[in-house]
């Protein structure tokens, strides 16, 4: 099974260091993942689809076509993109009439979606290679308490995602264990970080973040691990906003799970661009060295 | 006083039949993190009840509760004992709001405009391009603009979403 | 026998470790040997085992025992076994006495075994003093008339009658209306199968054609007399009296729909009852496009607190029938709580939603208000009023107790509950029995019941009834109450208190008499008689006082 990256918009356009950690992690695991040109916004399941479902389906189907044409499957670095691409595929498979309608739109650009492409979230691929991850760990992240944030679109709707348990997820915590760290159990683990609500009401978005942060703090975490750039940005950039609004002092370092794996594989902070983090990671690096 | 409107209810049912199955148990609103954070200002159960009653002006014009607050986290969909696809119903309601020319949050417009103009929600800025080089990351080849333009024309996207606010 | 020397044998049970692991049983046994009249005392691991029972039988013979005491567990579970053992050894079973040193002693005093042991000695001494005064009693035998009387010819009564007839018993079925069938005659289709009600009425033919069933229509009950095995009922048909003898009676009198008059500006035209809608549907004459049903009309309120059980499913059924005929019709159900229990009914409710029927919840303190062409109702979830147009409003009225149920209850001497429905002996353990032996209840006479409930309850009642009808003779408890005619002043306090209606006035002497077949020896009358004119055999004043005095009480 050959994969090509679907990077989405946020990671390459805002958070290239997360992309670096992902590419290096998959390289270290001996997986060759190619690059695909010409794809567009997935489009955002929390954005464009809310305006026009049909356009969302058509753009998503076009992206699927590109990978289908090059005989490769999709390895997505973003949960939102994963959900969109999986949901479009699901909808078109379930409803032949809808598939015909979308193909008639695609026809205007000379494309046709057949349905021969698999879509996988990068964390799923990592989990499927958990044994080889365990073997490659050089510097186990001993005693590091990590609160995983699965986020919504990594899990739900489970009917479409067909992956981890949508209400009691375990894959990320097992990956955290695999690199020698301690996964933290906290009460609001499956709740939304609040990021999509920022588009309509920033205050409520921040309150949702605060609820999550409080729950993580109560459970005694050292840092946060994400698998979605939207969630990552919410935690990384908006902790300060929460502190401003609510007179709190949250300052958790936020990692993409590939960054933690890369560190456990023995890569150094510079290689994976940890210096670009807003919340400084020095204390964590000290703790694990 | 709001008048029950079966025709509008049936319009929503046509988009997503599962609406019919709701029996108002309140599971959705009790597990909704936005309802919790907004202290009930946002309430998925209310939107579903208004949909069942076909209360068009509340849903589309007044937008009470504010349907745009939904985070699409899908918790309600996961927990609904009657398998109502709430977020699907909400999406079709938002589509109706947008496509009947009613107001909707600016951020959605900004994102749509970025996709129309550049094919992506976020374009690469010069500092990011520099960082990509530093991190030895490959170039990102953007999508074929003409192709996208044609596809969006086929779906009539720009007109539907009233991007220039001329309606 | 009375003059015979009293010889008591005491058998003390270890009950494994239940008693023996806590109390000092050998010590208790030695103590028992010292008590008056005790000629034999022994302990064993399990007195109820064959070894223990043989020991009782052998020692009755060897020591000529004429009283036996077992100190062990609860008489509720083991008294019948030990009584039978005494009987096998030639002893009258009422000369057996049981002392509970487990449930009431070793189990409650696990942490103070010495005091438990002393308590066991007290209990056994009390038993010995009571046993010395025990008298032999005889069980009463009653013959049984092997035929049944079923009151009410609706679905419950007809089904009960058929069930008993199919078991081979003669059945008398009486119906006050000129037709069999009851409420089903007014129905169009029946849930959850949506089968034609007329299909269910085919049972009428089976009943009328059955040679074992004698049907009395347009019949009014004049009088009911007798007791289990021997009921005598007088009925009137067109001024003709008929006497019916039966071993048992099944009450299947059903219930009546509450009249919609006076509720929600009912007018019988565009505001009708669910029963009237049944009629319209039957004649295929529902032309309305906007139908609204209102649930819980006239019930679940201060006057009538109960849920009528059948109206939710009934409304769902009719709503769906309207939608099936006219898919474009708008049908709404304004409800308080939808009650659709069990998997089948739950699925039926889901099907109704699937058909697009609109459900709107209302609060009892803010009921819907009917205007000229629309209804206004406060929507609790939305916290504001909404309105719905209508051209037909259907009121779901509850079933209420028949107005003659009180008369019948008095004749049968069985109780009614607060809403006038017949009250069973125990809501959970004896759901179709009355406390009075030989009378049973089923269907809506007991509580608004739907057809499947009527069928299962009437089968249950028939099955319970046949446990009596299948016997030639019935043995009833020998330990009963007896009135001392010379002491009775005729105050009749006992008549009012007797839970089994076993006591009646003796018109000749103006005192009271006990029907020993009905009496269960519960003792309520004896305890309440202000002149101590009542003796409860096996629990006489002397026997109980003797036990109390030896414990340390004063005579």
Describe this structure in words.
- The complex is a heterotrimer of chains A (289), B (167) and C (555).
- By secondary structure, chain A is α/β, with parallel strands linked by helices.
- Chain A has helices at 10-14, 16-28, 48-51, 53-69, 79-94, 96-106, 122-128, 130-136, 158-161, 171-178, 202-218, 229-246, 257-264, 282-288, and strands at residues 3-6, 33-35, 73-76, 119-121, 145-149, 182-183, 223-226, 254-256.
- In chain A, strands 2-1-3-4 form a four-stranded parallel beta sheet, sandwiched between helices. Chain A has a four-stranded parallel beta sheet with strand order 6-5-7-8, with helices on both faces.
- In chain A, α4 (53-69) packs across α5, α5 crosses α6 (96-106) and α7 (122-128) crosses α10.
- Chain B is built from eleven helices and one strand, in the order βααααααααααα.
- Chain B has helices spanning 6-15, 27-31, 33-37, 44-53, 56-62, 75-79, 86-99, 106-118, 126-134, 145-155, 157-161, and one strand at 2-3.
- In chain C, a hairpin with a 3-residue loop joins β20 and β21 (374-379).
- In chain C, the strands form ten sheets. A five-stranded parallel beta sheet of chain C has the order 10-7-6-14-25.
- Chain C has 555 residues and is of the alpha/beta class.
- The chains are: A alpha/beta (289), B mainly alpha (167), C alpha/beta (555).
- The interface between A and B is large, with 63 and 65 residues.
Instruction: Count the beta strands of chain A.
Output: 8
CATH topology of the largest domain in chain C: FAD/NAD(P)-binding domain
Rg of chain A to the nearest angstrom? 19 Å
Mean model confidence by pLDDT of chain C: 95
Count of spatially separate domains of chain C:
4
Helix-and-strand structural type of chain A: alpha/beta
- Overall morphology of chain A: globular
Under the CATH scheme, which architecture of the largest domain in chain A would be assigned? 3-Layer(aba) Sandwich
Please, how many domains of chain A?
2
Radius of gyration of chain C: 31 Å
What is the helix tally of chain C?
16
What would the principal axes of the Cα set say about the shape of chain C? elongated
**Helical element count of chain A?**
14
Measured between the Cα atoms of the first and last residue of chain A, the distance is 36 Å
CATH class of the largest domain in chain A: Alpha Beta
Beta-strand content bin of chain A: 5-15%
CATH superfamily of the largest domain in chain C: FAD/NAD(P)-binding domain
């Amino acid at each position: 099974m050959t994969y090509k990256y679907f990077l989405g918009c946020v990671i390459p356009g805002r958070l290239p260091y997360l992309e670096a950690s992902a590419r290096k992690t998959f390289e270290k695991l001996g997986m060759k993942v190619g690059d695909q040109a010409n794809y567009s916004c997935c489009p955002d399941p929390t954005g464009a689809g809310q305006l026009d479902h049909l356009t969302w389906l058509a753009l998503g189907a076009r992206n699927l076509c590109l990978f289908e044409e090059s005989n490769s499957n999709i390895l997505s670095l973003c949960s939102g993109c994963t959900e969109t691409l999986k949901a479009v595929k699901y909808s078109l498979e379930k409803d032949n009439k809808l598939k015909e309608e979308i193909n008639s739109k695609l026809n205007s650009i000379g494309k046709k979606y057949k349905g021969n492409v698999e879509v996988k979230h990068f964390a799923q691929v990592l989990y499927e290679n958990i044994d080889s991850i365990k073997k490659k760990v050089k510097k186990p992240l001993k005693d590091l308490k990590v609160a995983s944030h699965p986020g919504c679109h990594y899990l739900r709707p489970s009917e479409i995602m067909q992956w981890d348990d949508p209400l009691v997820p375990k894959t990320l915590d097992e990956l955290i264990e695999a690199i020698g760290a301690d996964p933290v159990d906290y009460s609001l683990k499956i709740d939304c970080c609040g990021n999509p609500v920022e588009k309509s009401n920033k205050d409520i978005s921040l309150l949702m973040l605060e609820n999550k942060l409080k729950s993580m703090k109560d459970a005694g975490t050292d840092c946060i691990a994400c698998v979605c750039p939207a969630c990552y940005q919410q935690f990384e950039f908006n902790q300060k906003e929460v502190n401003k609004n609510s007179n709190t002092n949250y300052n958790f370092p936020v990692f993409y799970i590939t960054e933690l794996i890369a560190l456990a594989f023995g890569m150094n902070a510079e290689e994976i661009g940890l210096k670009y983090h807003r919340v400084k990671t020095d204390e964590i690096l000290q703790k694990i060295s | 006083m709001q008048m029950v409107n079966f025709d509008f209810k049936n319009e929503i049912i046509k988009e997503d039949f599962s609406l019919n199955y709701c029996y108002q148990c309140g599971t959705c609103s009790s597990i909704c993190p936005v309802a919790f954070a907004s202290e009930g200002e946002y309430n998925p159960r209310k939107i579903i009840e208004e949909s069942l009653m076909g209360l068009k002006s509340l849903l589309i014009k007044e937008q009470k509760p504010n349907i745009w607050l939904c985070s699409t986290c899908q918790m309600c969909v996961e927990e609904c004992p009657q398998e109502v696809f709430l977020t699907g119903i909400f999406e079709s309601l938002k589509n109706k709001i947008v496509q009947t020319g009613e107001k909707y949050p600016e951020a959605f417009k900004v994102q749509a405009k970025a996709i129309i103009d550049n094919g992506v929600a976020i374009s690469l800025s010069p500092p990011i391009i520099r960082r990509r080089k530093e991190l030895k990351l490959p170039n990102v080849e953007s999508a074929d603009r003409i192709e996208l333009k044609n596809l969006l024309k086929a779906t009539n996207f720009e007109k539907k979403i009233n991007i220039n606010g001329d309606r | 026998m009375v003059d015979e020397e009293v010889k008591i044998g005491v058998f003390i049970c270890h009950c494994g470790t239940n008693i023996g692991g806590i109390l000092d049983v050998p010590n208790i046994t030695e103590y028992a040997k010292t008590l008056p009249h005790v000629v034999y005392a022994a302990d064993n691991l399990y007195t109820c085992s064959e070894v223990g029972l043989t020991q009782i039988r052998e020692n009755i013979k060897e020591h000529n025992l004429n009283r036996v005491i077992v100190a062990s567990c609860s008489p509720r579970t083991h008294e019948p076994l030990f009584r039978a053992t005494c009987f096998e050894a030639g002893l009258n079973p009422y000369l057996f006495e049981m002392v509970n040193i487990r449930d009431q002693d070793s189990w409650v005093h696990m942490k103070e075994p010495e005091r438990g042991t002393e308590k066991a000695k007290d209990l056994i001494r009390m038993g010995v003093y009571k046993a010395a005064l025990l008298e032999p009693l005889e069980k009463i035998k009653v013959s049984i008339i092997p035929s049944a009387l079923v009151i009410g010819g609706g679905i419950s009564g007809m089904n009960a009658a058929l069930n008993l007839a199919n078991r081979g018993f003669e059945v008398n079925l009486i119906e006050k209306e000129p037709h069999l069938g009851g409420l089903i005659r007014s129905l169009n289709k029946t849930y959850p199968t949506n089968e034609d009600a007329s299909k269910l009425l085919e049972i009428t033919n089976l009943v009328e054609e059955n040679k074992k069933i004698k049907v009395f229509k347009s019949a009014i009950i004049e009088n009911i007399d007798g007791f289990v095995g021997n009921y005598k009922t007088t009925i009137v048909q067109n001024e003709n009296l008929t006497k019916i003898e039966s071993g048992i009676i099944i009450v299947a009198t059903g219930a009546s729909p509450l009249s919609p008059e006076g509720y929600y500006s009912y007018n019988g035209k565009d505001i009708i009852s669910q029963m009237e809608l049944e009629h319209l549907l039957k004649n295929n004459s529902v032309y309305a496009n906007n139908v609204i049903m209102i649930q819980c009309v006239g019930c679940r309120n201060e006057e009538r607190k109960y849920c009528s059980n059948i109206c939710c499913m009934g409304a769902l059924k009719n709503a769906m029938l309207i939608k099936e005929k006219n898919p474009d019709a708008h049908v709404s159900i304004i409800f308080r709580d939808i009650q659709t229990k069990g998997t089948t009914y739950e699925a039926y409710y889901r099907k109704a939603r699937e058909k697009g029927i609109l459900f709107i919840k209302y609060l009892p303190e803010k009921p819907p208000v009917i205007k000229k062409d629309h209804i206004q109702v406060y929507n609790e979830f939305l916290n504001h009023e909404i309105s719905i147009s209508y051209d037909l409003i259907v009121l779901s009225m509850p079933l209420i107790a028949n107005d003659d149920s009180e008369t019948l209850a008095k004749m049968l001497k069985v109780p009614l509950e607060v809403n006038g429905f017949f009250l069973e002996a125990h809501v959970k353990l004896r759901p179709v029995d009355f406390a009075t032996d030989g009378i049973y209840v089923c269907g809506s006479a007991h509580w608004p019941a739907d057809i499947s409930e009527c069928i299962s309850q009437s089968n249950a009642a028939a099955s319970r009834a046949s446990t009596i009808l299948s016997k030639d003779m019935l043995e009833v408890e020998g330990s009963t109450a007896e009135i001392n005619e010379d002491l009775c002043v005729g105050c009749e306090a006992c008549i009012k208190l007797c839970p089994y209606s076993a006591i009646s006035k003796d018109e000749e002497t103006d005192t009271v008499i006990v029907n020993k077949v009905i009496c269960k020896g519960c003792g309520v009358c004896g305890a309440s008689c202000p002149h101590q004119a009542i003796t409860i055999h096996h629990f006489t004043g002397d026997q109980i006082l003797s036990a109390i005095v030896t414990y340390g009480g004063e005579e």
